[in-house]
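Q: What would this chain look like folded?
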Amino acid sequence: MRQEDPVATHAAHAEPAPEAGTRAMRRAVELAARGLGHTSPNPVVGCVITDAAGTVVGEGWHQRAGGPHAEVHALRAAGAAARGGTAYVTLEPCNHTGRTGPCAQALADAGIARVVYAVPDPNPQASGGAATLRAAGVDTGAGLLRAEAEAGNTAWLTSVRLGRPHVTWKYAATLDGRSAAADGSSRWISSAESRADVHRLRAEADAVLVGGGTLRADDPHLAVRGIDGATQPLRVALDTRAGLPPTARILDDAAPTLLVVAEDADTRHLPGVALLRLPPHGGRIPLDRLLTELYARGVRSLLLEGGPTLAGAFLEAGAVDRVVGYLAPALLGAGPAALGDAGITNISHALRLDLTEAVRVGPDLRITARPATAPKEH
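A: My prediction, written as structure tokens:
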């Protein structure tokens, strides 16, 4: 798609100072983040509308799937003041009619004179909004604060580009890399503040995944707690032989649950549980097939909370897009490592990460990193 200069304008339209446009787009990025965890399988999008003088007259964000898009909310807030103004949008306005109408046409109909968007839409079903706007005589610009907008919408963008959910591996460990003590006890390695922060990660994800080992060892609940208005993620349990007892906490009604088992697994002791039966390969559920099935169910962001074995399998498959580690200021010396076998046998094959953030969370250190090499396409 052609990348227009975000500050170039038609002579008939007086553009506000560049810094005003940057402020407006940065505000749009902030607004978009309010939709995290509520819009799947749609992206998070923010929109700010300014009048000809650069004054903000309308704001909006995509609040939930099936509801009005960010541009529509902003246009409603702006009213007649939108005419002749500029719309700053974090993602190229959509060009298709689904549960809502095309935003590109709505902007043109409202008399918007210029649209500046940060990221071109990679979805072929919705792209082309910029061309529609130009055909309607609306000036367009692309790329303003693209990196910031991409970062805020990385899960959806990754899922569209790779055809699978964006995967975040979350773990907690001591400074010497242990996820539990030698006797298997692990509650609690991280602090209460870190555990509360994990609920934020869950609330931003479409699904949370654990494996059979974690199910048996910890009986996790995986629902979001302590966050008002959170949309509960799908709880996915990967349990090949269906050894999960019917009393498992993950089977309560606090959030939806999907049990992934082998085709021939006996699940008669789990009546009423939603099942996904997949053919195992070498005794394991193939991760590529699992990700395909979750994507087909609308999962665009997946939080991996499983133990070291499952984490290693995802990393070996090249299916981890982000790593979030909570490092507690403690030492154990023995016990299981946070990461199991990931198919790495030589230091030259180490999976190198780009550190994107390191912050204190209570007494712990939360480190966020991304693989330095591009994740594998599905």
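The longest helix spans residues 18-33.
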